[in-house]
Specification:
Keywords: Biotin biosynthesis, Methyltransferase, S-adenosyl-L-methionine, Transferase. Pathway: Cofactor biosynthesis; biotin biosynthesis. Belongs to the methyltransferase superfamily. The chain is of the alpha/beta class. The protein has 10 helices and 7 strands. Helix content is 35%, strand content 23%. Strands 3-2-1-4-5-7-6 form a 7-stranded mixed β-sheet, sandwiched between helices. Helix 1 packs parallel to helix 5 and helix 7 packs across helix 10.
Length: 265
């Protein structure tokens, strides 16, 4: 069941469809996503996995990075978006490409040494199940390494929309403290759990919203307005966001969660 203390997240079919449509455009605008994943890779302890999983593998960028890092290991790439898997498969990296859900992994117990997941798990309503599944499929001593997003992400855009109307326009994520509670209760040993902001800057509102659409991460929340957003509201949004401009441009803050959790036994 979804975490009752977390925001209501989009239907997974909508998430899968949105990211499938974004497969061809994603890498061109995914600078933040690459930087966050590279930081997670750099924080991995010394490992010699025989089998790893890239969970929420997307276009396969980090599947290929993991294959370079652990050339002797068998790699699996799993994503809920079939379009992403079709895009990633010809580029290699993983040995197997699987369609599946992080809350119900189609993998045998104690079959992995490393589960790596960067900026995918924020779309999972039941994060406790994600952690339970990671614990189930990891061998003793295995590691779950993940990044996700927490509340406060795109707060500037959220606040600007709040100046315009009362609809839900910006994706909502669980608070960092809830990540902490769920990780501590997971049966996995937290080695690292921290929140770090990352701020991007944009020349104008159109550049920001265009990037979100190219990533497949535009507004998918229940409560979003139906139909097209009128020009008058877009002008009002642009004016509201301009009041938040800084010297570098229009700020867009991502609140990134970094976690390393080990299965002790």
């Amino acid at each position: 069941m979804p975490d009752s203390t977390s925001p209501v997240l989009p239907d997974k079919r909508q998430v899968a469809a949105s990211f499938s449509r974004a497969a061809a455009s994603y890498d061109a605008v995914a600078g933040l996503q690459r930087a966050v994943g590279e930081r997670l890779l750099a924080q991995l302890p010394t490992l010699a996995p025989t089998r790893w999983l890239d969970l929420g593998s997307g276009t396969g960028h980090f599947s290929r990075a993991l294959a370079r890092r652990y050339p002797a290991a068998e790699g699996l790439a799993l994503d809920i978006a079939e379009g992403m898997l079709r895009h990633a498969r010809p580029q290699g990296g993983a040995r197997h490409f699987l369609a599946g859900d992080a809350e119900r992994l189609p993998l045998a117990p104690a079959s992995l040494d490393l589960v790596f997941s960067s900026l995918a798990l924020q779309w999972c309503a039941d994060f406790a199940s994600v952690l339970a599944e990671a614990r189930r499929v990891l061998r003793p001593g295995g590691l779950l390494a993940f990044t996700s997003l927490c509340s406060g992400t795109l707060q500037e855009l959220r606040d600007s929309w709040a100046d315009v109307d009362g609809f839900v326009h910006v994706n909502r994520f669980r608070p960092f403290e809830r990540y902490r509670q769920l990780c501590q209760a997971s049966g996995l040993q937290p080695l690292l759990l921290e929140q770090r902001p990352a701020v991007l800057h944009f020349a104008d509102l159109r550049q920001l919203t265009g990037e979100l659409k190219a990533l497949g991460a535009h507004n998918l929340n229940p409560g979003r307005p139906g139909g097209l957003t009128g020009r008058a509201r877009l002008r009002a949004l642009a004016a509201a966001y301009e009041r938040r401009r800084v010297a570098e441009g229009l700020p867009a803050t991502y609140q990134v969660v970094y976690g390393l959790l080990r299965k002790e036994s």
